[in-house]
Specification:
The chain is built from one helix and 14 strands, in the order E-E-E-E-E-E-E-E-E-E-E-E-E-E-H. The chain is of the alpha+beta class. The protein folds into two domains: about 130 residues, no CATH class; about 45 residues. A five-stranded antiparallel sheet has the order 3-14-8-7-6, with no helix packed on it. Strands 4-13-9-10 form a four-stranded antiparallel sheet, with no helix packed on it. The radius of gyration is 43 Å and the shape is rod-shaped. Keywords: Membrane, Transmembrane, Transmembrane helix.
C-alpha cells in the first residue's frame, strides 16, 4: 500500500485506520491540532518496544501482553497528506502509569487549509506456538469430520441390531411360556350309556 508517499506491506491481521479531517476552523495560521487516542489493551501490556525505520519513514510500536499471550503492533507513518501535499507529522505512544492496559497515542496534526489525511494501521498477533496449534487443529478438521460421518451410521446400526435382538428374544420367551402352559397329561373318561339296558 501507499499512503502519503510511504509504501508499506499489509497483513490479513492488520486493522486499517484512516483518518481524514476537513474544514477545521483554525483561528491562526500557526495553530495546529493534537489528537489523543486512548488504547485499551487486554491483557495488560508488560513491554513496549519502538523501532524507527529510516528507510520507509515508518515507526513500529510492539506491545507485548502478560505471559506473551498476545502481541499488538502499531505502525505509524511519518507523513500525512496536508492539502494534497505529503507533510511530516510527529507522534508519540506512552503507557499509562496507573493503568498498564491503557496507552495514549498522541498525533501532532499540522495546520491545513482544507483537508488532512493520515493512515496508520494496527494488528494483533498470537504467539507462533498458538498459531501452530491452531493450524494443526485446522488440518485435523477433515479427518474429524470423516470420523463423525462414519461413527454416526455405525452407532445407529448397532442400536437397530440391539433393538431387533431384544424384540426377537422377548417373542421367543413369550412363545416358550405359551407352549409350556399348554403341555401336560390329558385324561379322557369314557361315558357309558344305561348299564342295565332296557328289558324287552
Amino acid at each position: 500500500m501507499n499512503s502519503s508517499g510511504v509504501s508499506f506491506d499489509t497483513k490479513p491481521s492488520d486493522l486499517k485506520f484512516e483518518m481524514a479531517l476537513s474544514g477545521w476552523p483554525f483561528a491562526q495560521p500557526s495553530d495546529t491540532l493534537r489528537l489523543h487516542l486512548l488504547l485499551n489493551v487486554t491483557p495488560n501490556v508488560t513491554s513496549l518496544l519502538q523501532n524507527n525505520s529510516t528507510n520507509n519513514n515508518i515507526t513500529t510500536f510492539t506491545l507485548l501482553s502478560s505471559n506473551e499471550t498476545m502481541t499488538t503492533t502499531i505502525r505509524m507513518i511519518g507523513s500525512g497528506t496536508v492539502d494534497g501535499v505529503n507533510t511530516p507529522v510527529s507522534f508519540s505512544l506512552a503507557q499509562n502509569q496507573s493503568d498498564p492496559g491503557l496507552l495514549v497515542l498522541v498525533l501532532e496534526i499540522p495546520h491545513f487549509n482544507s483537508s488532512f489525511q493520515y493512515d496508520p494501521d494496527f494488528s494483533v498477533l498470537l504467539p507462533s506456538q498458538q498459531q501452530e496449534d491452531s493450524s494443526s487443529t485446522t488440518d485435523l478438521l477433515p479427518l474429524l469430520s470423516l470420523i463423525a460421518l462414519i461413527l454416526i451410521p455405525v452407532t445407529l446400526a448397532t442400536i437397530a441390531v440391539l433393538v431387533a435382538f431384544l424384540v426377537w428374544a422377548r417373542r421367543r420367551h413369550i412363545l416358550w411360556a405359551t407352549r409350556k402352559g399348554m403341555t401336560g397329561n390329558v385324561t379322557l373318561s369314557r361315558v357309558d350309556g344305561d348299564k342295565g339296558g332296557n328289558a324287552l
